[in-house]
Each structure stands twice: as C-alpha cells, then as structure tokens.
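wait is this the right file?? whatever heres the structure
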C-alpha cells in the first residue's frame, strides 16, 4: 500500500482518521475479489487533513490505539508544494466527542487526531443524483392525482402558481437533508423558470445551494418544463436565471408546440452562457416518432459533446435490441449522456394497458456501448409525477436492477457506477478516494458496493471536504431486558462499523448501548 502526505510534523487534532475501511479495486488491477462480491480491497485507514485525503495506510488492528506517524520533522505536507498535495481552505476538523458535538462522531486522543472506526465499511466519494426536481417536491397534497404524464404536467403547472420562495425552500430542504443523510454528495436539480413560477423557485434553490454547500455540491439547471414557443416570456426568465448564477439550462421538447424550435432556443442559451444543456425527451412508449434526433443534431452542430444529457428516453424500452444499440451508439458518438429515472418511468408508463403492463424503463445496462455515460437518478419526490420517494439513490439503483432483471456482479457494479462515477461524468467532474483528492467520503454498511446494492444497506457517515456532515448509527438488537445489545449489521457478530470510540474507552463501552 502506497502512503503519502503524512511526512513531517505529527498528525494533529485538525486531522481526521477513518479507520478500517475498504476501497474500490481499480479496474484492470487483476486483484482477486473476495467471495465474488467484487471491488473490495484490503482494509485501510484514511487520513483526512485540510479538506484533502492526506494518506491511505494499511489498516491497523481495531483494538490498537491510533499512533500518528512520526517522520522527518519540520515539513507540513498540507502546505508543502513538494508533497504533491494542494492546500485547501476547507476545515478538516471532525466533530470531537469530548465536546459532545457530532453525536460522538469521533474521538481524539490528547494532541491527536479525531478517529472514526468504520469497522470494515465500504468507502467511496458519495452518490451523485444527476436528475432531481427539488422545487416541486412534496406537493402531492395540493394536487388531485391523475392517470398519466399529461395530467401530472397540468397539475404541477397549476400548483406552481402558488409557490413562494419560503415554500419552495422548506420543501426542497426537506429532500436535500434526506439526500445528504442517504449519502449523496453531488446533485443536479432542475428549477422551473416560467410565467407560473417566475424566479421564486430559483431564488429558493440558489439560497439552499449556499446553505448546504458544506455537505453537498448542488448544481441548478434553469428549466423550461412547459415549453418556450407558446410561452415567449420563459426564455427571458431562463436568461435571468443564468445571469443570476444558474449552472445549466434545460428544456422539454414534448411539451412544446414546436419541439425543434424549442431545442434550438435552449441550445442558443447554453452557447451564449457557455453552460451544459439537458433535455427531458421521448417520455412515452411509441417508437413511431421521437425528438432525440433533434438533440443529437444540435449537439453536433454546436459542438456541445460532453456537455449535453437527456433524461427519461423511455422509448428505448420499446425498441428491438439492435435498434436500441444503434441509438446508444449515436448518443455515444455525439457525447450525450443518458439518465434513467426508474421510479417516475415505472409509475407513469403503460397507463393504457389493462394487462401485461410494460415497465417503460430504458434498459441502459443492456444498451451499454463504449463512451456512453449513463446514470440512474431520483427525478421527482412525492408529487403527481412520482407520489413516493426519499432521495435514496442506493434504493433507486436497487429498484433499477430489479426492474431490469440484473443479477451478476458485473451488472451490479455497472448499476452502482450509474449512481456514482458515471453519474458524475454527466454532471461534470470525477472523484476517487486517493491521496491528494478532496476528502469527500461516505461509508456504506457493507464490505463492497455489490453487497451494498443487493441488500440496500444504510450509509453510516459522511464527510465533505474533510468535515463530517452526517452520521447514521448502526442499529443494535436488544437481547434481554437489561439494555445489553448485539450488532445488527454485516460481519456475523464482529464489531461492526461506526464504533467511533478509541483506546480504553472503546473497551469500556463494548457492551454498552451504541452512543450513536
């Protein structure tokens, strides 16, 4: 195991040590996957400092007291240009159990680092939600319900007229908090800007973007849900949202009277403001017509490959395999990412069938071609498009795997990537757990991602830029009437993850109720 970043002064109290985690095995490493589950390397300790991953070291025995490395004195690698680690302005200090903050999320020895014992949990940079509508979440109580896509669009359009900045802020924050505690560290939310919503939703989500920046990277896409050619004011509102800091722009050809003009107008704004573009497209099961070719053509014409994505594309599920592959190759060649939205697509598709109801979910894994980035995402939460939801991307990936009838480890690794690395490629960026990388870390209560996906496990804790953002205690079973407990996670009785205590205190608390 290569280590780096700990040369110089002793590791001090500003450092966070996450002990006993497992990391993904790099593709092509030739490493044997234990038990066939896949992608789980040997246990290691992560050292976080100044918002970066300062070192990755072989894990020590769980009972050992953490002793910081002591090498050549006089060099502080957090600021030393020769260390290969750039200084970050982020505060790398974890909550300190001695102060009672952070629900005992970590403890620190005198003059030593805060320590979090992960107990073999799988560590990764966090989930990426590439397609969610925070502004219209939790409005089901304002709508009548309906029987399909057109009814959902109409009901939400009416509800938007009553949106206020505070209303959108509170509903969106409810989802954002759930997403963070479910392990999401990056998210792209659409925000509707039109004559019904004005810029009230954008104002609310822009404030949330700042308020929760310590825990999640939130990108905002100024979005024309209800078209543009029949609502000329919408283009002006999209422009104002972009001028005020929207990160992207998006459109919806199937709601526009002139889909081709709509696609061109949205691309005009993307080029003018030099931002990525996204379209909700081909959201039905009739393969006799489509709008995807309009997006492909404009992407090529504008040179916007790698900065264009599409969501839904449920028509793919109605095509023969050879035709699906042809569409996938066109998307890959044009540099267009594809986002599948299982909950919404299942709920709204096939409403005209009285038997053998089609699933209506794009079979992305069965349509994989080189160069095509594909993601699974949340979309809507508790509204007429999807009257369910908790912003849990692992659960959404599990749902997608079930609907797509996937069972092999290789397929499930692909699905896990669709809510992590592949989704990140669509939203923009790439993160890994490696020395010198930003200290974005989420722990899953499983030894590897395939097991996590099969069992829909709970995230245990998360860090953003080295700061702990949440903790979800592992459950314990009460085994008698005296408060004694037993572990209820993976490991068959071994001391499991999130035992964030160290040294003699760890031994004293071993039989006590988990403080988390």
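ok assuming it is, sequence goes like this
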């Amino acid at each position: 195991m290569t280590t780096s970043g700990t040369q110089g002064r002793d590791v001090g109290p500003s450092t966070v040590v996450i002990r006993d985690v497992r990391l993904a095995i790099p593709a092509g490493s030739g490493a044997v996957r234990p038990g066939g589950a896949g992608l789980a390397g040997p246990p290691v300790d992560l050292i976080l400092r100044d918002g970066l991953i300062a070192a990755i070291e072989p894990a020590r025995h769980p009972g050992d007291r953490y002793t910081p490395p002591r090498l050549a004195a006089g060099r502080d690698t957090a600021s030393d240009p020769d260390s290969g680690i750039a200084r970050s302005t982020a505060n790398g200090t974890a909550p300190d159990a001695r102060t009672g903050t952070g629900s005992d999320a970590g403890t620190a020895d005198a003059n030593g680092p805060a320590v979090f014992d992960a107990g073999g949990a799988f560590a990764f940079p966090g989930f990426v939600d590439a397609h969610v509508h925070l502004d219209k979440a939790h409005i089901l109580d304002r709508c009548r319900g309906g029987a399909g896509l057109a009814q959902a669009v109409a009901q939400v359009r009416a509800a938007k007229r009553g949106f206020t900045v505070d209303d959108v802020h509170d509903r969106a924050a409810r989802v954002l908090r759930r997403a963070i505690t479910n392990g999401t560290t990056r998210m792209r939310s659409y925000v509707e800007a039109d004559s019904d919503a004005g810029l009230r939703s954008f104002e609310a989500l822009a404030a949330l973007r700042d308020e929760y920046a310590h825990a999640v990277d939130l990108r905002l896409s100024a979005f024309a849900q209800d078209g543009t050619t029949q609502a000329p004011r919408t283009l002006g509102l999209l422009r104002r949202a972009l001028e005020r800091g929207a990160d992207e722009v998006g459109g919806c050809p199937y709601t526009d009277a002139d889909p081709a003009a709509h696609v061109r107008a949205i691309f005009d704004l993307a080029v003018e403001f030099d931002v990525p573009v996204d379209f909700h497209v081909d959201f039905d099961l009739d393969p006799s017509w489509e709008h995807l070719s309009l997006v492909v053509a404009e992407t090529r014409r504008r040179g916007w490959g790698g900065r264009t994505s599409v969501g839904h594309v449920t028509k793919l599920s109605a095509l023969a395999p050879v035709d699906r592959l042809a569409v996938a190759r066109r998307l890959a060649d044009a540099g267009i990412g594809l986002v599948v939205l299982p909950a919404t697509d299942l709920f709204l598709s096939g409403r005209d069938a009285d038997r053998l109801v089609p699933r209506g979910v794009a079979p992305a894994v069965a349509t994989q071609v080189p160069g095509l980035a594909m993601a699974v995402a949340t979309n809507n939460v508790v509204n007429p498009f999807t009257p369910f939801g908790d912003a849990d991307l692992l659960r959404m990936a599990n749902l997608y795997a079930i609907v797509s009838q996937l069972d092999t480890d290789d397929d499930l690794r692909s699905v896990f990537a669709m809510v992590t690395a592949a989704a990140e490629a669509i939203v923009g960026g790439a993160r890994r757990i490696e020395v010198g990388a930003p200290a974005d870390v989420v722990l899953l209560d499983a030894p590897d991602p395939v097991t996590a996906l099969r069992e829909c496990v709970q995230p245990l804790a998360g860090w953003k830029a080295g700061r702990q953002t949440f903790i979800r205690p592992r459950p314990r079973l009460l085994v008698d009437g005296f408060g004694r407990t037993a572990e209820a996670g993976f490991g068959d009785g071994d001391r499991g993850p999130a035992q964030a205590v160290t040294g003699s205190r760890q031994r004293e608390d071993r039989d006590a109720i988990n403080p988390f």
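The chain has a mean pLDDT of 83. so i think its the right one actually
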